[in-house]
Amino acid sequence: MPNSRHYLKGVQIDEPRNWQDIEVTMDWTKGKIDATISLDALEFAGDSAIDIIARMNGGLGGGIGYFEGEPYRIEIGELLNPAFTFNGYLDFTDNPITKGCNVVQVALKREQGEDWLNDVADGFSYRYLSSDDYNGAGKIEQIEFKSVPYVINYIPDGVELLLLSISTFVLTKELVESIKAIVTKTKELIAAAIPTVGGNAGGPVAGVNIGAIVGAIISLAIQIAYTVAIVFALVKLVEQIIEQLAPVKRYHLGLSIKQQFQKACDHLGLEFKSTLIDNLAGGEWVLIPSKGHKGGSKPTGADNTWRETGAPTSSDGLDTFASVIRTYKSMFNADYKIKNGVFEFERVDFWKNASSFIMPDTFTDQDELRNESSVNTGEIKSNITLFWSTDQQDLNTLDNSSGRLFQAVTAPNKVTDQKLVNVKGLQENNIPFSMAVRKDSLTAIEEVLKVFLIAADFLSGQLDQPNSFAAQFSSRIGAMHLSSHFTSVPKMVVMSGNSLALDQRSLLDARKLWDNYHFLKSFVTIDNENAQRVIVSEQKIPFCFENFVTLVDNNYAENELGEKIEIKTLLWKVEENTATVSYEIERVYDNNLKITFLNG
Asked: Which of 313, 363, 456, 576 holds its CA 20 to 30 A away from the CA of 82?
């Protein structure tokens, strides 16, 4: 065993009694890129054990107790320049055993390792992070939700629209007549105000009819008030017609994929890095949770009465950070890694650069002096599908299937007996979100309506103003199309500024997800990548501490032939300086395959 030092809360202590007997297991098979280093429970004796027992029992007297770990560090190698440092913690919730007043056995976990993440990532929700009761580092403020504009595109109620049109016609006609009446009454007022000339003994005298003037003023005022009332009524009718033909733009709140990761990492005290998320095509990918209410009339923060949230819930399948990780791992063929307090989320091959470790060419069966291996034929799928969900509340997802479905079908090139072909199996990648439809232009009906709105702006005195009917109508372009204010499944949109990005369906196309992420699953070579592997199981090799250091954060290496290998599991018997390792070699073993792509 190399020279090792143990530190409890930063203070060096004696080695645990069973330290020399420990085996170190490195396992990469549980969906993690970074290795999980599992050290069996450590057994402490003497003063260290007494302190640990007191620490656990402290919860009875106002202390911390069992439910917070104790920092534990192991340094191996030179004192001033250790070759390896293990930062972990003693986990008092994982079956600690007190064997006496001065002997205790406690589990050791890696700090911010897989065990830690699995324990805490399901322990909080995004609704909690956005609640008024939470004020931690991962707080999601209302202003941080993304306001996604949407408009309703559905066939209006014909009878109601007819009544509104007739009413508008009658009011418009009445407005014209009222304006004519104002002109007439203005002339009457002018006429009444002109003095009349009369004669008497002293000569001609000019006079006015006060009663006629007052009457003309009252009549004109009443006519003006009536005209203003007609204008207001006309404006309301126009608004109702717009609501029927083209409802006003509203906003639903969402949360970007990056914010979903960033806020959870902030809460957990982790730094977040992801070139995958930073480089998503088209702009900012925003998830809008399912909605059971009408959206707000103004963007985030502008409408105090609008208190909806953009946080996903359990009904969306993305309530917790763990569910977010699982969902986007499947969607982007990705994985995560935690190292030195940094949470990385990348495509599965991101960490593929080989370590300096070279796999020794030893026999897998050292008794018979022979090598045994197999191939991963059981992993091939003849049909790999990627498909977005449909939203029964939104007819757009049913009417427009562009980009929603993609299939990659693998089959042999040369076949002699079709019934004996063993390329089979289905792998479905169901994306639990529906795709958005962007409003790119005005419809023919809307173009006609726009002309009508320009006339309405003229009559109401709003022509060429930013808040006029016509201006508001034109701003609908770039919004999301919905057939209802409500949605039954979450919806993914790509935002460019405050509008949906152009080519929305193309950016989200399931084929793009294959081309960018899932092609690595192909057993036919694509872009110099192929999923065929030769499997070597439980090969015993010489292994020392220096080898351990090279692999602790990178399970990719090479064999002596220069082929790339991925180590799956490794059990290091420290005292024996040996390890039992299982790994896969990147090696094509069958070229009689072809792949066909089908777009939905």
From this structure: 576
